[in-house]
Amino acid sequence: MKRALLACAIIVVFASAAMAAGGTARENVGCGLGTMLFKNNADGSSLLQAFQATTNGTFGNQTFGVTSGTSECRQPAKFVKNDRVNEFVFANLDNLAKDIANGKGETLETLAELMGVPAAERDGFARNLKTHFAEIFPGAGVEYAQVVDAIVRVSNEG
Amino acid sequence: MVYGGMRRLLACPLLFALLVPVPAAAGGDPYAAALRADAARLRLSDDRYWDILLHYKAGLFGRTSLIDDRRFFLSPRGKTDPAAELAATIDGFFETGLDEEVSPRCRFPARFAWLSGRLGIDASLLPAPSCPTLDNNLKRIDPRSAALIFAAGHMNAPASMFGHTLLRIDSSYTSPLLSYAVNYAAEIDPTDSGITYAFKGIFGLYPGYYSILPYYEKVKEYHGMDQRDLWEYRLNLPEEDVRRMVLHVMELQGIYSDYFFFGENCSYNLLFLLEAAAPSARLTEKFRRWTVPADTVKVAVAEGLLAPPVYRPSQARKIRHIAAALDDDGIARAAAVIDGREPAAKVAAGDSPEDNKARVLDLASESIQLRYMKRQLGKDEFQKRFLDVLSARSRLGDAAGELPPMPVPERPDEGHGSARASLAAGVRKDAFFLEASVRPAYHDLLDADGGYTPGSQIDFLSAAVRYYPKDDRFRLHRLDLVHIVSLAGRDDFFRPVSWKVYAGIIDKPFPGTPGAAVAVLSPGGGFAWQSKVLGLAYGLVETELDVSDRYGTGYAAGGGASAGVIRQVGRSWKVALQARQIFAVAGDTGRGNSFSAWARNGFRLGRNWALFADAGWEASAGVRFGEAKLSVSRYF
Lengths: 158, 636
What we know:
The complex is a heterodimer.
Chain A: H1 2-17, E1 26-28, E2 36-38, H2 46-53, E3 58-59, H3 83-91, H4 93-102, H5 106-114, H6 122-131, H7 133-136, H8 144-157
Antiparallel strand pairs in A: 1-2
Helix pairs in contact in A: 3-8, 4-5
Chain B: H1 2-11, H2 13-19, H3 24-27, H4 30-41, H5 48-54, E1 56-59, E2 62-65, H6 82-92, H7 104-107, H8 109-119, H9 132-141, E3 145-151, E4 164-170, E5 180-188, H10 194-202, E6 206-214, H11 215-225, E7 230-234, H12 239-251, E8 256-259, H13 266-277, H14 293-302, E9 310-312, H15 315-324, H16 328-338, H17 344-349, H18 354-373, H19 379-393, E10 420-428, E11 431-439, E12 441-443, E13 456-468, E14 473-486, E15 489-490, E16 498-510, E17 513-531, E18 535-547, E19 555-569, E20 573-587, E21 594-604, E22 609-620, E23 623-635
Parallel strand pairs in B: 15-17
Antiparallel strand pairs in B: 1-2, 3-4, 3-7, 4-5, 5-6, 6-8, 7-9, 10-11, 10-23, 11-13, 12-13, 13-14, 14-16, 16-17, 17-18, 18-19, 19-20, 20-21, 21-22, 22-23
């Protein structure tokens, strides 16, 4: 009963605001910077978010993603066996670029752990990648496979 | 619940018939019969752990599972018959030649582990199906420990203010980004419109699914896209408990239960997982009608399940933190880079201190990322500007742009309780009154903000009754069906819209009578700004519809504006000043005009007590009166 009342209250109120907007989910596929799943409507309007928040909703089959696909992209040449490195770099390319440019950060720290860089050598690992930023991210269209290859190459040289 | 289950059952009877294995096929095995007899003797189907694994809850007609997906049950009566389901489960373990997707042993590893322990099942007497998918998933997840994650509300979406919870399963990796997140959510139809989300979400018309995803995906979603802070509470649980919980998560793969925003929501359904890990904790039974996510965290803390949290601020907070360390010139330069009016290399080559340059570029890169996520920037333009800024940044020194640590807000589990009861005394016009009021949920502008979103208010069904001794009468003073206010400050980087909506019944004085009940509906929208001196200052355009037979035409409708400031003074005092004018344009335009000015104070007395002192002046329906009130409130 209480719940029904509450529900009615919300419906009345939201209906009165009457600016219902359609929600769209669009996957921005790609293999480089800016590859991500957009969840909200284009303008991220607060009212739409208010509606969506009532469901904490997910779109589509985002359910049991224990492994995530990188198969639509070109695979790295040198590190193709380590699928966790591949997946991680693919899914976190933007934040990784930011961390490498800064020489520190959680994403970079995580990559070092995945690549098995010993704790004592991680500062040097980060400094080295930062120095070679332009080599790892040579241009706006860079793809994750090139990034993985360049990181491996630069680390082996450094 | 019953309705939802029935609807789906009727919709796919054929599928249902195909998916339920026939128990009779295995019923003949003498060992199966012996195990069933042992289980009956031990009354295992009445065991609390069986309730937890099957999500059974006692109801009017006995125990019923909250899971609505028929595929979750091996017995056709499984949803309502725990004993039949248990017998069917034992028989299921004896089935042979089944694919791993349907083999009960592969699909229900937590049931098998628990029954093995309780019945001392000798696995060598059972068929041993191979479950490669299950094995791979468990190996990949590598469960060692776990954390309960609380996502605080979005600053401008009050419905999200209730928060959200998810679980994080930590592995032998040190970095939490390599952990997996377990989340329960409604699967919404992207073609639905806004109002449909709310309706279906509230009435259980969306299926809810448990999902498991890399935790970094959730961090990207909350930290970046949604701009919500995360609080990570490590669970005080040994590895074997966590493993049991993960086995149960595996059982729920692809299984739906009807999602209800208020009751059986994300947080409520996670409690079953916590109970699967720690069956001695009493969690689900504490939430019967509605489940506020922050309250589930409080209950889990009270049960001793959680360690103190780690705070992961949203990207919006990070942007404001960097901006706070820059002067106006620095912010202007960052804005020029963000808009693409100035190349980042020019900033890096400038002659300002290196720390300053690093902050300008950091502010630019974070903001460019945020704009892209909000789709204010196309992908090509994003890639170009983002890389341009980062490449300039990589040429600055290692320690450049270091900032002091970000201030940590109050923990969500230490905020006030979400229900409130108050007693008050005051004077209206020349009449003394006593008032009692209750608010079932959730937070209002004058309540202490710790653990809540500042500038936000969501009140549901709050009611106040007054007693006027002068003429010995009780009056319903107000009944607020819903009162939501979302005031979000605008600055150089964020331009949110503020809004409010009120629906309820208010006792208003009319000429010749001390009061009459008026049904009021009043939405409004506008802007707010955070200022160091004034606090949060806002202005809203408002509309109002009043319905009562005291109006000549039965109603009055009009529009106007309100403006005010809300300021925190020290840790425990909050002041709000507000003025509001409504001009009636339709209906009874004579009586529909109203003006009010209020000063309100909230004093926090410890976590769950507060004092409020309000004084105001109103003119409504041609009656002018002043009112003052002092109240004491207890939160629950």
